[in-house]
User: Fold DNA invertase Pin-like site-specific DNA recombinase from Aminobacter ciceronei.
Amino acid sequence: MAAKTQIRVSRRPQGRQIGYARVSTDEQATAAQEMELRAAGCEMIVEEHGSGASRARPALARLLREIGADDTLVVVRLDRLARSVSHLLEVMEDLTTKGAHFRSLRDPIDTTTPQGMFSLQVLGAVAQLERALISERTKAGIKAAKSKGKLPGNPGLRERRSDALAKVTAAQKAAFGVRVQATLNQWLPTVRRMRPDHTWDDIARVLKQRGLDWTPERLRRAVKWLVAEHLADPGLLKKSPPRLPEDRLMTLVAGIHASNPDLTLREIAAQLERLHERTPRGGSKWSPSSVKNLIDRARRSGLIADASPG
Assistant:
């Protein structure tokens, strides 16, 4: 009896192949990486300029937010993507949550294949072992220090010395500034359009509808930092004037429309319902005509200058 030969064909996901190319400085070019990524079938390539050790990766963060199910994130080498094994695994977790895949052209990692998934699991095991060894060495060091009468930690902080506390405060402020500037272009234009006519709560809710997770307190703090660094107009921090409920709805709808002029009246109505905003008459269901009335009022008030959404 003739043996049957079974041929297994590896099927690639039907989504997009999205390349990610990173270089450390503005003087370097991503051209060589782009050529390899194009040759591998990437239709879209996201470029990033930034140190491999830096946590500020705005282009990568935006890519991870927007990548879709069955899309594949492709890099030339792993070091172009992640700062460390733990960072790589965080990125993998984000992709898995989205139903997306990952592939490194020069490394044996391709999560669309069993072999690639195995390599990724090995990396995860190595990272877990590394964390355990670090923890064990740290505990042993603390125990040895205590046996010699030494206390762990920074002596300056333990003694609440002003110079040590000032250094920690300065480092925290610098780190906060890096995080604020990394996402600046995603939320500051909306803040500029809506402040001070809108409350911070209204602006945070509009940003949340766009997938940006801001609380009013964090948003106000970020703008205060920008103003202190002379990167934003102090007028953004002015107190919002008291408004009648319908006036607040008018400016809220104007803000949603300004953030995304392509939204239809029905889509704006759906956003208002998700925000649990009541209609001018107190109802919970918004109609396109109610939205249009508020947009027309906003246009007459000068809040909107372009054509109304369809």
Notes: Confidence is low (pLDDT under 50) at residues 1-10.
